[in-house]
Amino acid sequence: MKIASVGALGALATLLAACNTVDGVGKDVEAGGEVIQDASNEVKEDIND
């Protein structure tokens, strides 16, 4: 019983850590997308001027 409880706690800790990692990756991808979008808007403005 004790081993199962420790295993369950370990699995829970792993899942929580994975959520934080996925959240961090999502924020990084979003920031990269914003940089690309800003660059695209600058090119668009240069073409229209």
TrEMBL record:
GO terms for biological process: response to toxic substance. Residues 1-17 form the signal peptide. InterPro entries: Entericidin (IPR012556). Keywords: Cell membrane, Lipoprotein, Membrane, Palmitate, Signal. This is Entericidin. Belongs to the EcnA/EcnB lipoprotein family. One of its GO terms (cellular component) is membrane. Pfam families: Entericidin.
